[in-house]
Amino acid sequence: MIKYVFRVLPGILFLISATAKLAGIDAFELYLFSFGWFPLGTSYLLARLVIAAEYTLGILLIANFYPKLSFWGSVAMLGGFSVFLAWLLLAGNHDNCHCFGEWVDLSPGQSLLKNAVLLALLIPGAGIKPFRIRRKPWWLAAAIVVPLAAVLIASPPDNWRYDSYTSRDMVNEPVFREAVESGMLPHSVVEGDHVVCFYSLKCNFCRMSARKLMMLRERGDFSGAPIIAIIGRGEDTDPNPFLEETGFRPDEIHFIEPADFLHITNGSMPLILVMHDGAIVEKFNYRSLH
Question: DSSP assignment, residue 95?
């Protein structure tokens, strides 16, 4: 029983870690993409594979019908994560490593300590006898397939549904044109090539959109045209915290009243428009941006 308790505790932590990552899947995707090792679509899928693997290991540790497999699988995952975290430390990266998603902000050093504790908890239960159940291979297959299917159903990768995220009413074009003609928006948005971003300083998806846009442009995967930021004027009109947090570097920043902002964007944000000689060539929200 004592050995089993030492297996259950890491299993529960794996389940919590996976749930935390799934709850903050958008930030976890961007975190993986930020290293530049994988394309955006691959980062979407990899994030979900990591979450599904943690769910599977948590289930196997608690169910205890393949103790050796779950033990060595857990050691391999924690070892792989620890090598990655050690690399972050050597690179001087002390940001949140997303081990518990956005729920708990852990630095790489803190997460390394957490992994050491998990490994220490696993060792006493290494020699436990398996529970006797029927059709163990079927249960093993279920423990692998069900979590992966559940994660993909609960949060399908954005690149599987780009078209469904883009609608014609994302922007009210007549109001947009009228705003340019009246001087509410700068005339530069309809001159030549520009990327026009409608952001709110307090919108979480706007912040993630700004980060994603900068990452895509660094890789040459998005329009290299100058960026014009249109920001809804609220109580806070200082864009510097937003710019520092996201790394967003627009060529121009303009503020408009919130009512006008919502009228142009039909109440949705963020909105990114790719302009060419006054024509809207492409339009994106956070999920369709690629």
Answer: S
- Please say which residue of 104, 126, 160 terminates a domain: 160
Domain endpoint, select from 160, 184, 212:
160
Residue 217 lies in a domain: yes
On whether residue 21 sits in a domain, the answer given is yes
Distance CA 143, CA 153 (A): 16
Answer whether 66's CB lies under 8 Å from 140's CB: yes
Predicted structure pTM score: 0.86
Low-confidence residues in the chain, pLDDT < 50: none
One-letter amino acid of 230: I
Q: Which two tokens stand for residue 17?
A: 């870690």
**Rounded distance between C-alpha atoms, residue 60 and residue 83, angstroms:** 23
Q: What is the pLDDT of residue 13?
A: 92
Domain assignment of residue 289, yes or no = no
Q: φ and ψ at 6, to 5 degrees?
A: -70, -20
pLDDT for 14 equals: 93
Range of the domain at 219: 162-284
Can you give the length of the chain in residues?
A: 290
**pLDDT at residue number 4:** 83
Q: Strand, helix or coil at 123?
A: helix
Which pLDDT score, from 0 to 100, does residue 99 have? 86
CA–CA distances in Å: residue 24 to residues 31, 48, 101: 11, 11, 6
Give the position of tokens 């700068």. 186
Helices 40-63 & 67-90 angle (0-180, nearest 10): 140
State how many domains the chain has: 2
Q: Are residues 12 and 138 in the same domain?
A: yes
Q: Is residue 32 part of a domain?
A: yes
Indicate whether 180 and 246 sit together in one domain.
yes
Complete DSSP assignment for 185-232: S-GGGGSSEEEEEEE-TT-HHHHHHHHHHHHHHHTT-S--S-EEEEEE
| pLDDT for res 137 | 86
User: What's the rounded Cα separation, in Å, for the pair 99 and 122?
Assistant: 18
Residues 155, 11: Cα–Cα separation, whole Å:
23
CA distance 72 to 189: 57
